[in-house]
Design goal:
By secondary structure, the chain is of the alpha+beta class. It has helices at 15-18, 43-49, 64-81, 158-170; strands at 25-30, 36-41, 88-97, 102-113, 120-128, 138-150. Strand 1 (25-30) and strand 2 form a beta hairpin. It is globular.
């Protein structure tokens, strides 16, 4: 996959600058069959789930209905932008707690180019929207309720521009 000028290579990612975010970062790649392989699962995320999901296939951590909806979101994006198009992806969803209740999360994924094979990968920041009780943890299951995908070389979506503008005015 050839990236546009705006897609950073892995070597260009400021990993030291990202250090404060690393515990909640995940890095993954999608294969030709549409499965998402977790390459890195941050320590805070591993702690929440009670295990490191590095090396796992994310769709296997979803119910069939949720996995199907995830595939549809990627297929819809590919139909509009092309199968090999890079993507940014905002998700609002839920994780399942072992106690049976749900924990809402948000995530935002951005593309990067893996230097060794020039493939497109994603770096994802995952933010649980609340803390969990002492002794509770998450099952490795999640669902995506709201998904917004956009091409990184195009103008930011209005909802993201609005959020950026609000952050700028607060500073």
């Amino acid at each position: 996959v050839t990236a546009g000028e705006k897609i950073p290579h892995k070597r260009d990612l400021p990993l030291r600058g990202l250090a404060p975010f690393m515990p909640r970062l995940m890095m993954h790649r999608r294969d030709e069959d549409g499965f998402t392989h977790c390459l890195l699962f941050g320590t805070a995320l591993s702690e929440l789930f009670g295990r490191d999901l590095t090396g796992s296939v994310l769709e296997e951590a979803m119910a069939l209905e949720d996995s199907t909806m995830r595939s549809i979101s990627f297929a819809t994006y590919a139909a509009e932008h092309g199968k090999e198009a890079p993507f940014c992806r905002y998700v609002r969803g839920t994780f399942n707690k072992k106690t049976g209740s749900k924990l809402q999360f948000e995530s935002l994924a951005f593309p990067y180019v893996e230097d060794t094979d020039r493939s497109m990968r994603s770096i994802v920041y995952v933010m649980p929207m609340e803390s969990i009780s002492y002794g509770d943890s998450l099952t490795p299951q999640f669902s995506e309720q709201s998904v917004h995908m956009f091409h990184p070389d195009m103008q930011r979506p209005d909802w993201l521009q609005l959020a950026s503008a609000q952050q700028t005015t607060k500073i």
